[in-house]
Amino acid sequence: MSRTKSVVLIKGDGTGPELTEATLLVLDKINPGIEVLVKDAGYDWWISAGKPKTPALIPDDTWEAILNSDACLKAPTTTPPDPDAPKSVAVSIRQRMDLYANVRPIKTFKGLPGPLGDVDFVCVREATEGLYIGIEFMISPGTAVALRRISDSSSERVARYAFEEAQRRGFRKVIAVTKRNILRLTDTVFFNAVQRVASRYPDIALEEYYIDNMAQQLVKNPQRFNNNVILSTNLFMDVLSELASALVANIGMIYSANFGDRYAMFEPAHGSAPKYKGQYRVNPTAMLLSAAWMLEYLGFKREGVAIFKALEDVVAERKRVTYDLGGNASMLEMAEAVAARAEQILMETG
To answer: Which of 198, 223, 247 is a domain's end point?
Structure first.
């Protein structure tokens, strides 16, 4: 008899707790047979706990639950700019659990045209190093330095993930984004590793763009990247994937995952939106699709696909959707519509 899968659901900050509520509503309806442990982490927890001297915005009991779970689903969390605050929740989990590939599919929803036309590509971001190693120091009064670490081994494994992802999706090109003419050492280490991996995938082309040109092209002609995987280092792809999110209605539609060799964390791409806290107004799409992707990762493919399909149907129908999608439904009303449709799909598919 197979063991029940265990999932840590971090309820997060701002609108995170209500998004957690919406997600549990859907998961309870389709009943995938997983154990869900709802845990604290984030800025709100840190403040309520009296600002403890911890390395991350994550309490010890949440770390213990993560270390003993099969996957993590994280609602949005707040990362304060305060230099004395602990490291962010997402960065801390990525680094400790060695989740080196942050993946964001950028795809137009049926019945919801994007502002610059239909798009369908995937952003893959190296998620454990770069400027996010968090090493900064003052070299003189008023002058600070940040270190950017790019290693051959980390670059190679995220490149391998990007080419494998292209292969899984039937895509025929990987685009590596660098600034190799300026960052001649670090980005050359990255690009050399990508080239080495590319040589093992002769059916998938490799193309290089500099980040400034890539940002322009994503706005000028985003369709040229359809059926591509776009790959870059940590900060570059953080910025580019956020820009790309705007091509799909709004960032409330963008779900993401962080994959390692033995663990994964799933999360909406958007922030905690504290000004909407407690109003149940924000779009639950990204959180619900992150949960659906997590189910597929855990082996509950049928249930995950049902949520994806249900959400597409609810968005296309445009009757029970939130204000940003042209409707007047609350977050929970939209989640209820998705849950009911997912349950119907599961019944129809037997």
So the answer is: 247
Q: Kindly give, in sequence order, each residue whose CB lies less than 8 Å from that of residue 47, ignoring residues fewer than 6 positions away.
A: none
pTM exceeds 0.90 for this model: yes
Residue 262 to residue 254: CA distance in whole angstroms: 24
Report helix, strand or coil for 253.
helix
The candidate with the shortest Cα–Cα distance to 311, out of 281, 330, 283, is 283
Q: For the chain, how many structural domains are there in total?
A: 2
CA dist 70 → 5, 35, 266 (Å): 6, 10, 12
Judge residue 83's burial from the number of C-beta atoms within 10 Å of its C-beta, 0-12 exposed, 13-18 middle, 19 or more buried.
exposed
Nearest-angstrom CA–CA distance, 119 and 149: 32
d(CA 169, CA 229): 9
CB contact at 8 A, 86 and 57: yes
Q: Which residues of the chain have pLDDT under 50?
A: 1
Query: Where residue 260 sits, what CATH number does that domain have?
Result: 3.40.718.10
Which tens digit of pLDDT belongs to each residue from 183-208? Answer: 999 999 999 999 999 999 999 999 99
151 with 243, same domain: the answer is yes
